[in-house]
């Protein structure tokens, strides 16, 4: 099958510099370059983030909070105030006999003068619920003459992602100029036409449809992102990302890694454990062992629900490095969690004569110098720590295995930094990445084309499922009795305070008053308190006391979220649970149900519940399967939030949406395979076209 020969000559307009456009002087060029835009092609692919539908007018009465719309009305009242800061409120009304408030915080005197009562205003914005009904804050608007009343535009207005220092109107003009220089269809196309689904348009047509929706275009589809033009571009973008991740993997595998084969030490560890490994733990460890026995770097993600026992698998893997006379490092996202790993590993490994060193931010002065020396000279066989492990000045003697726990808390860059500690002669350590945030299959395929994935999909025996109840906050007093009863039986409980959108300071205050209230209501109990603004040492001390059973009740903010293991805790109460995402609720709930006692989790909410929050709490009540929860989370929130924007750059897709476009992924894989095999130069150019500078950075 011949592939189209798109021109890649220097005269290719795709690579023409933006400085050739009218209005692009050195200053504008610099602002564009800061966003990775240097060529015409970069502007072609600067796709609208959404559209404003100005083809219709919505009656004010029919407006819904959160749903953007265009309305037209007559000014009924204007109010200016300066109480806290300058503010302008303009009330407009229309034939639906309803009123909408437009609210401005920045405005000029001339603007105020425009809004005389009786003047007709057309505006576009997203209404939200204000003090007196719906309002639009800083809508785009224009005054229309009575002769224009109701006369509408006939196409959608694209809205582009903002670029700092370049106004939206200027940006639109620049993109329009770039589009005027779009080459003919055949010159632009990289993908062989008959490899694609016949229903999808060519690249040129797709770009023009997205940037300049023609009259009569399917407005609803464009707004929903399901128009064939958008699908065509999403396909190409997903393909570029897929190819780029595959390349990174191939590049990584070109490095050498130490072959770790001796399993006698791992076997001794296994035999010394107070429990038998689950089938899933054995299977995953076998996969890891297999990888470590090869001379290429392992890059494996181990997914396992909270409490599935990932740590011991990591410890077993570390023994292979130690037996070979090399080092293993285990990095955790919080000091609390790292300290817990340290305690576990010391308890398991020191009896076997393995030296475990500790390196966290709070290790300073002489202790730090001593730890660094041990790491550098190799006496430290296993090193446990936080981000401090990756800092400059930390040199390993011979790092053979880098283990990263709770991977979603770290960005790709941090993971790479630990990898780069392998050093000598281009050798790279094996990497084991562990996460309790299960990643739905579709997402994993797209996000981790560069990783092998294992799942510990079985919990250790004897755990009883956590019973979850959802209650309105007015039921709080009953819970105090419940805590009293649980603790009287020798159990422990968590009370988690959350306030999102507020500063840590305010959360800490709220938690403080809850702590005081509970201490007073439960005088017979030993109540502890941890929050994010405490000194690390105090936090640690409280956690340690709770773990040791010296406290009955722990009042905490979400700092206890990740990985903390106290098997005797069997009751958790989460306040304002409606404000938390599913993944976070699942993590929190995973703190109970780790022992053999029947456990419960009470999710308290402040009514009224939004539709979305209700669905989340329902999901929590119905299932404790991390994978089901992750799928639901993806559905409700989208991939960007699920993985964290730092993670993979997934949130930075220009047009693709992994949930909406999931059905394209099989085709993406097929075409990806085929390109790699039959036309690797085209694969290169696709990656360059869509990812460009970002790809160069990631493979560095
Ligand atoms: P996570 O996967 O959430 O990191 P951990 O590694 O912290 O889970 O393990 C949770 C608890 O289960 C720990 O106390 C650990 O010692 C224990 N554990 C791990 N594997 C088993 C097993 N096979 N049988 C019984 N308990 C286990
Ligand atoms: Mg863990």
Automatic annotation (TrEMBL):
Q: Where is the Helicase ATP-binding domain?
A: 291-456
Give the Gene Ontology MF terms in alphabetical order. Answer: DNA helicase activity; hydrolase activity
Q: Which Pfam families match?
A: DEAD, Helicase_C, RecG_dom3_C, RecG_wedge
Could you identify this protein by its name?
A: ATP-dependent DNA helicase RecG
Q: Which gene does this sequence derive from?
A: recG
Residues in domain Helicase C-terminal? 495-635
Gene3D superfamilies with a match to the protein in the record: Nucleic acid-binding proteins, P-loop containing nucleotide triphosphate hydrolases
Q: Which family does it belong to?
A: Belongs to the helicase family. RecG subfamily.
What is this protein's function? Plays a critical role in recombination and DNA repair. Helps process Holliday junction intermediates to mature products by catalyzing branch migration. Has replication fork regression activity, unwinds stalled or blocked replication forks to make a HJ that can be resolved. Has a DNA unwinding activity characteristic of a DNA helicase with 3'-5' polarity.
Q: Which PANTHER family match?
A: ATP-DEPENDENT DNA HELICASE HOMOLOG RECG, CHLOROPLASTIC
Which UniProt keywords are given for this protein, alphabetically ordered?
Answer: ATP-binding, DNA damage, DNA recombination, DNA repair, DNA-binding, Helicase, Hydrolase, Isomerase, Nucleotide-binding
Q: What class of enzyme is it?
A: isomerase
Q: What is the lineage of its organism?
A: Bacteria, Pseudomonadati, Pseudomonadota, Gammaproteobacteria, Lysobacterales
Keyword Magnesium found: no
What Enzyme Commission number(s) appear in the record? 5.6.2.4
Q: Span of the secretion signal? A: none
Q: Which reaction does this chain catalyze?
A: ATP + H2O = ADP + phosphate + H(+); Couples ATP hydrolysis with the unwinding of duplex DNA by translocating in the 3'-5' direction
